[in-house]
């Protein structure tokens, strides 16, 4: 194994080179958020003496076992509260001033990590001549429990504070790895994309990144009263009352996870789907992200935003998951905030396919359109939809949630383990998406010589379709958009 040394502000790191890229894994960007630092805003990492090996991924945030990580062949990594680590990939040749791409993983704010093989950044770094960074952040109750009302020993949105601190670490250190701290692009999927929506609205994140890519996730937050209800229910499951708040710091990780599971099962205090998510809170996220962005909080930050054609089919796969109309309307109300969600029920078939389609349209596409509209008044925006699917495949049979990720990362090599034969058309699609994302990170425009891509503007509403064919469509599904969202969205 060939090693490569880098000096950071905290100390020396030893990384490893392979297949044209160098990686540094398990790099601490914060102090371990344990003991008295549990449920507190992340604090900068401390220095170390000597050389620190950065050859393996760090632990991931404690979470339930996730089928989605094993889906792409990762298995479960070591879990620990001491989880605030990031990973860096760079081209093997010594270079300077490269664009930086920072990946924020998804997982409903409850699961996931930066070490899933699907997120390996070697191909992006090597083929795109850029620096790729992926980060862990706190999840579930550790990262998204609204506790600041309990007093100065507790903070809210700690998972978002982790992301902000990681971006600060990148700004201070990425030059040593060949990156340009003044050309940083954040990109993320699902909860990672929703995190980016929050970062675009957060005063503490201003200036830490310069472009954004939001894949399958728009603005998502809890109002303070909702978040306080979730926290109160969680504390009851944990057995905490007003006189025993110290138990929040002393309870075992397993007790914290068990209380979270009980909360999810009981669906008390707010959305059963996403009880742990960003909360509107004065010191961290003071304003609804859509409102903040529409008022110019992210002025000058170019944006790529999009969805997959069949997002909802990832969550609603068979008849056993079909809900009665009242329950489904309630779920949509909690997820989207729509007061009239039940009015849309009759517009879709009552089948599982109808409910999946409704989730795709109302939860994913609608939120992307609203966010694109808000930001397009202040910066260039590009819209896409991912349409590729593989007939009769158990996962890729539709263009479901997360299906675009191996194409963006250039990691199609992982797909044969899922029974997918890689065809030239798939590689061409991956090259087109990867190149567009990387050109955007480099220049702020996703157009390439092979694929011109017009901006999304109110006059034309251009959407790039990434499917078996790649084509640009004006005002995609206009009649549906007008029926669902009105003429002004």
Tell me about this structure.
With 489 residues, the protein is of the alpha/beta class. The chain contains 14 helices and 13 strands. Strands 1, 2, 3, 4, 5, 6, 7, 8, 9, 10, 11, 12 and 13 form a 13-stranded mixed sheet that branches. α6 (224-238) packs across α8 and α10 runs parallel beside α11 (352-376). The relative contact order is 0.10.
Query: Radius of gyration in whole Å, from Cα?
Result: 22 Å
Overall pLDDT score:
92
Helical region count? 14
The major pleated sheet works out as: 13 strands, mixed
The helix/strand order is EEEEHEEHEHHEHEHHHHEHHEHHEEH
> How much β-strand is present in the residues?
15-25%
Which word captures the global form? Answer: globular
- The portion of residues assigned to helices is 25-40%
Q: How would you classify the helix and strand content by structural class? A: alpha/beta
Cα distance spanning the termini: 54 Å
Number of strand segments: 13
Query: Which ranges are low-confidence, i.e. pLDDT below 50, for 5 or more consecutive residues?
Result: 268-272
Protein name: Carboxylic ester hydrolase
InterPro entries: AB_hydrolase_fold, AChE-related_enzymes, CarbesteraseB, Carboxylesterase_B_AS, Carboxylesterase_B_CS, Cholinesterase
Domain Carboxylesterase type B: 4-471
EC number: 3.1.1.-
């Amino acid at each position: 194994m060939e090693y490569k040394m880098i000096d950071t502000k905290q100390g020396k790191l030893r990384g490893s080179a392979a297949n044209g890229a160098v990686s540094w894994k398990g790099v601490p960007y914060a102090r371990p958020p344990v003991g008295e630092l549990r449920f507190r805003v992340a604090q900068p990492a401390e220095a170390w003496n000597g050389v620190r090996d950065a050859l393996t991924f760090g632990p991931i945030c404690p979470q339930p076992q996730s089928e989605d990580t094993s889906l792409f062949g990762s298995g479960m990594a070591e879990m620990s509260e001491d989880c605030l680590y990031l990973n860096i990939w760079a081209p093997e040749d010594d270079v300077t001033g490269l664009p930086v791409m920072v990946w924020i993983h998804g997982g409903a704010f409850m699961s996931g990590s930066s070490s899933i093989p699907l997120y390996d950044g070697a191909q992006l770094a090597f083929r795109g001549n850029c620096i790729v960074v992926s980060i862990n952040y706190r999840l579930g109750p550790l990262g998204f429990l609204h506790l600041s009302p309990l007093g100065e020993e507790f903070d809210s949105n700690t998972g978002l504070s982790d992301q902000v601190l990681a971006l600060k670490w990148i700004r201070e250190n990425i030059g040593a790895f060949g990156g340009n701290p003044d050309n940083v692009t954040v990109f993320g999927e699902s909860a990672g994309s929703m995190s980016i929506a929050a970062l675009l609205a957060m005063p503490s994140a201003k200036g830490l990144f310069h472009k954004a890519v939001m894949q399958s996730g728009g603005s998502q937050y809890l109002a303070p009263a909702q978040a306080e209800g979730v926290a109160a229910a969680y504390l009851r499951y944990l057995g905490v009352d007003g006189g025993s708040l110290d138990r929040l710091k002393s309870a075992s990780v397993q007790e914290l996870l068990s209380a979270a599971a009980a909360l999810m099962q009981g669906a008390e205090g707010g959305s059963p789907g996403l009880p742990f998510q960003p909360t509107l809170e004065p010191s961290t996220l003071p304003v609804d992200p859509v409102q903040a962005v529409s008022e110019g909080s992210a002025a000058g930050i170019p944006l790529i935003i999009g969805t997959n054609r069949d997002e909802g089919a990832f969550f609603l796969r068979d008849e056993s998951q079909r809900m009665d109309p009242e329950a489904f309307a309630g779920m949509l109300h909690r997820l989207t905030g729509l007061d009239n969600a039940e009015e849309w029920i009759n517009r879709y078939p009552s089948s599982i396919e109808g409910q999946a389609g409704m989730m795709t349209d109302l939860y994913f596409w609608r939120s992307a359109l609203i966010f694109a509209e808000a930001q397009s008044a202040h910066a260039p925006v590009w819209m896409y939809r991912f349409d590729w699917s593989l007939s009769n495949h158990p996962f890729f049979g539709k263009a479901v949630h997360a299906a675009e990720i191996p194409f963006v990362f250039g990691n199609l090599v992982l797909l044969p383990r899922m029974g997918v034969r890689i065809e030239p058309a798939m590689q061409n699609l991956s090259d087109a998406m990867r190149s567009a994302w990387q050109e955007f990170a480099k220049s702020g425009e996703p157009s390439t010589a092979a694929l011109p891509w017009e901006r999304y503007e109110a006059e034309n509403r251009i959407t790039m379709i990434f499917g078996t064919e790649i084509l640009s469509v004006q005002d995609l599904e206009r009649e549906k958009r007008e029926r669902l969202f009105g003429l002004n969205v």
